[in-house]
Amino acid sequence: MSMRGGLSLLGLKIDMMLTLSFIIAVSGFVFVFLLGSSLGLVGGLAVALAFNFLMWLASPYLLTTMYRLKPVERGDMPWLYSTIEMLAMKSGLKRMPKVYIAPTNVPNAFAFGSPLFGYGVAVTEGLLHTLNEDEIEAVLGHEIGHIRHGDMHVMMIATSLPAIFLYIGRWLIWGSVLGYGSRDRDEAGYTYMIGISLMVIGWLLYLLALHLSRLREFYADAHSATTVERGAEKLQRALVKIVENTDPKQGAKLASAKALMITDPTQREIAEEDIRSIMEREVSFSERIMSLFSTHPRIEERLRKLEELKRVS
Question: How far is it, in rounded angstroms, from Cα 123 to Cα 27?
Fold first, then answer.
């Protein structure tokens, strides 16, 4: 990769590090404030932290159960198994992730895992029917990139912290309202204001977590582009086909895991167009605003970034 491409990826890494560092720094400051406020808040904080940690550890089991994922061995689908094995080796993974098929017609793929249950890559039946082998390989390179970069752990931290603030904020608001008659009016008002403040902080940090999620999608795209032969070109074709063939009504069944997917299965951003037309399309102001609340970058942006990687690789 050329100097320009290396600088682009370096900038992406710095942006991700700064975003995560800011989320952690703000959260740490607020935690110190909460710990100094009352024992009740300490208890709420401990419960929220423990719950999010346990959910993260158990997430692979929950996903395999919820989406009825079918494990794949080498003899079941030799090409798919061997491709993931090869990409895991090229990516420097110490252990090959488990391979799964998700029985849904929605074309998509996702990586998941935790230290307790291990790591896996799942592809849907719809993806296998929609893409050719070259395009599937590029998608798998993207998903292996998520595992290589530890994205499941990073996003667990980034999304859990705002979720905790939102949880405690709601708890304080409802507590101040429901318990108003049994406490001093000023105390209830103070508790209510703390709750509102925590809700605002939680939402702002959640927007930052979404920004981090979009950055990590770009980074996983780059991993595929640099690991798979002609990966950028193959992934461009794959992304367009996936978005074209996604039915948001069917994709809504995967909504709870959409942050893990290679594209958002609940949205269909484009009509049938060629790659060049999509890249040249101007995104409207309203679309830019809506993208701030998305777990994934818009396809126009992803195709442009991949085009840059094609030119510099």
Answer: 35
User: Which helix (H) or strand (E) covers residue 161, if one does?
Assistant: helix 151-178
The pLDDT tens digits of the residues spanning 144-160 come to 999 999 999 999 999 98
* 6 has a pLDDT exceeding 80: no
Candidates 310, 148, 150; CA nearest to 235 is: 310
Query: pLDDT tens digits, residue range 166-222?
Result: 888 888 888 777 665 445 666 778 888 888 999 999 999 999 999 999 999 999 999
Other Cβ atoms within 10 Å of 237 Cβ, number: 16
Longest dimension (CA), the chain: 70
Angle at 53 between CA 263 and CA 253, to 5 degrees: 30
Name the residue type at position 142: H
Residues designated as active site: 143
Residues 173 and 170: their CA atoms lie apart, in Å, by 5
Helices 3-35 and 151-178 cross at an angle (nearest 10°) of 30
Alpha-carbon distance of 31 to 41, in angstroms, equals 10
Which pLDDT score is estimated for 185?
A: 66
Residue 275 has pLDDT above 90, yes or no: no
* Nearest of 256, 254, 235 to residue 246 by alpha carbon: 254
Spatial contact of 306 and 5, defined as CB atoms under 8 Å apart? no
Give φ, ψ of 113 to 5 degrees: 160, 165
Helix, strand, coil fractions of the chain, as percent rounded to 5? 70, 5, 20
